[in-house]
Amino acid sequence: MEEKIDEFVYKANPNEWLEVSDELHHSLEMILKNNSSVYFKPDTWDGIPIKKDMSSRSVFLLMGFAVENLIKGTLIFDNPEFINTGKLSGKIKTHNLQSLIEKTDEIELTDSEQNLIGVLSEAIPDWGRYPSPLAFLNLKNEVLYFQETFITYQSVRNKIRKVLIDKLKSGWVSGRENQRTNVQIIEFREK
Length: 191
Description:
Layout: H1 2-11, H2 14-34, E1 38-41, E2 50-53, H3 56-78, H4 97-102, H5 111-123, H6 147-168
Antiparallel strand pairs: 1-2
């Protein structure tokens, strides 16, 4: 059993969270590069027709998951106990990016970046993947994607990614006996 826990810890180390974030970001870039479809919906609840990119929800979802992975990687770096028992701690088992960022000391965001974190926190569990929430009390409006959103996202991502990379350069110790669960990264892909 200890070997399976060690394998889990290795696969949940902070660098793996960074790598998954980079993969999600790459997918996001590919969608934005190749997106040319626009959706026009004349029938809306408030009677105001909307026109949006067909990938709008997917873009917000990928931005949210990319940022979430970076924040969780940072938190796990500082708190190996969040994973070193063989399961993800309930303290970070959330998609609420605002509450996750509040658990960090190094990540400071501007007002516009903080606003985007709020939008992404709603997109991930809600309108980014489903047409409606589980109950009417949780109704939120979908936010439409605009180029300025991506600029703010890149700023947030770059800040958090830099914090995580700077931490990883010094190496990470899992707290497990098996030294293979520790991580020392020599080279990082700048993206």
